[in-house]
């Protein structure tokens, strides 16, 4: 690949992990690397990125870019594209990345692949590997147009750890504006159900089928083990449990001594919230469920048989 | 106020997924289909705006004959009319081809607000909404979990990571893509289903939209779809429920948790 432009997202004024992962992806393809940092007062972050292997770093620094807006950020990226004419544009698959990827692709009439886990070079062409059907299947995508655009799943590769120092240039982004108006950021409300400190979490998913089953099937096991109850997103979306029970990218990120996933398929957004647990047990009737890829122990069976039997065995073990 | 909701029909969440002979998509011959979950929440959001005042809700979908069923369901829930785009030219189409077709509908209808789902549960692209916004010259916000409509603008909460939210105001006309859990989705009542039969449902071809097959030719093609390679994976316990439970208890003890 001759030239890749990455959009490096910042967090608390520094390049976020996902940005360093984009460097890994881009460097894996070879060729020239240009990084774009967008915001207000980003000089330090741009220097930091240059030191951490970001290649030539363009700093798009303007008061109008202080808060994220799709309009202004898309314009800033288009200025960089006009100046650099890269063959590939990489963003992270984050709320910013998925807000911009489709918009840019439509504006440029370019091909785009989202939530990519791997990019392979085949001769002059690139193939993008992406999960589909909530991680149950993988796909190989062929993308045409220039530039090709892709968003890369955070955590899909290691953050770049080299120290090949690059340089920083400023990019003229005066006049970038947006019709969407940023109002405020609301941080996650501190709930009364903090899972981050729990030693043992038993989470139920859509496989539990109805809210009553959380009380009648899952809760007895949770109580017998003195565990905390967690849940996947559909459980919370359906109002079966409050949001503070949700584990995953848009819920809590946990790492207990033992995490038990019951009737949870293992979509990536759930996995990022629990895959660093010390030990993982999964109960699912589908032997191909992706949760078994991250679990240490698995039971392929009907949870409505296993969970009551396990509850009984735990009670017996405690009694004896 | 005129609201356009884009719906995609996708395989049922509990459907068994088998890969088709050509290897580029799943075998959908005997599958059960349903409205994409995210789109149910989008439709519900539109119907709530309608319930709160004056609004016409139009649902649009692109797909083969079977998708009419989903449009009927949406009409049964309370949408006023439906547009179905069906064309051979769209069969191998990608997100941009779909978005261009939807943009042509939007150009004909001039809605004040367009709603789509954040992503489709089958392909998981998350592209169509922002593409449609760009092609229609509209401001947009993705992954919203609330929407308040006041006069010439809407104020939405966008979901970020870890439960954080971003509040954004968009002048109308605008497009938003909806995240699951935004509201409580209604069911189509029996009365609604009866009424739906009389509601207008138009079928259009690519040519009816003023487009040519070349306009919707894909820039992205799925070369292959396959079961993810298995890694080491979990050790799978064998035996009866009681035997498996004993093994789990042993493990939980080993971990010092019992
Ligand atoms: C931006 C974004 C953020 C998201 N954030 C999160 C998040 O924070 N947390 C999260 O969890 N998800 C999140 N999701 C949703 C995620 O993509 C999945 O949709 C979700 O994790 C699926 O939940 P599930 O596994 O409970 O349901 P499903 O995927 O429907 O899985 C249900 C499982 O139950 C099994 N099952 C059914 N019946 C039985 C039975 N009787 N016995 C045993 N097993 C059974 C099935 O085999 C299946 O594997 C997010 C998605 C997006 C796009
Ligand atoms: N064929 C289609 N017909 C109508 N709407 C669609 C279609 N495909 C995608 N959409 C809309 O775009 C959203 C995102 O889909 P995708 O970009 O495929 O992930 C869906 O939730 C729908 O609202």
Name the features.
heterodimer; A: 320 residues; alpha/beta; Rossmann fold; 2 domains; 5-stranded parallel beta sheet; 9 helices; 29% helix; elongated; B: 258 residues; two-stranded antiparallel sheet; 13 strands; binds flavin-adenine dinucleotide; binds adenosine monophosphate
Strand proportion of chain A: 25-35%
- Find the CATH topology of chain B: Rossmann fold
Dominant shape of chain B: globular
CATH superfamily of chain B: HUPs
Which ligands, by name, code or SMILES, are bound?
A: flavin-adenine dinucleotide, adenosine monophosphate
Strand fraction band of chain B? 25-35%
Strands across the major sheet of chain A, in which order?
A: 9-8-7-10-6-1-4-5-11
Oligomer description? heterodimer
- The structural domain count of chain A equals 2
Report on the structure:
The complex is a heterodimer of chains A (320) and B (258). By secondary structure, chain A is an alpha/beta fold. Chain A folds into two domains: 3-170, Rossmann fold (3-Layer(aba) Sandwich); 195-317, TPP-binding domain (Rossmann fold, 3-Layer(aba) Sandwich), CATH 3.40.50. Chain A is 29% helix and 29% strand. Chain A contains nine helices and 17 strands. In chain A, β4 (32-39), α2 (43-51) and β5 (56-61) form a beta-alpha-beta unit. In chain A, α3 (70-84) crosses α4 (95-108) and α5 (211-224) runs parallel beside α9. The longest helix of chain A has 17 residues, at 303-319. Chain A is elongated. The mean pLDDT of chain A is 96. Chain B has six helices and 13 strands. Chain B has helices at 37-52, 68-77, 95-109, 128-135, 190-196, 241-254, and strands spanning 2-6, 9-11, 33-35, 56-62, 81-85, 113-117, 140-150, 153-159, 165-171, 174-178, 201-204, 220-226, 235-236. Chain B has a nine-stranded mixed beta sheet with strand order 9-8-7-10-6-1-4-5-11, with helices on both faces. In chain B, a hairpin with a 2-residue loop joins β7 (140-150) and β8. Chain B has 258 residues and is an alpha/beta fold. Chain B has a single domain (2-216), classed as Rossmann fold. The mean pLDDT of chain B is 96. The longest helix of chain B has 16 residues, at 37-52. Chain B is globular and about 65 Å long. Chains A and B meet through α4, β7, β8, β9 and β12 of A and α3, α4, β7, β8 and β9 of B. Flavin-adenine dinucleotide sits between chains A (134, 205-207, 232-234, 246-251, 263-265, 267, 269-270, 273, 283-286, 289, 302-304) and B (13, 118-119).
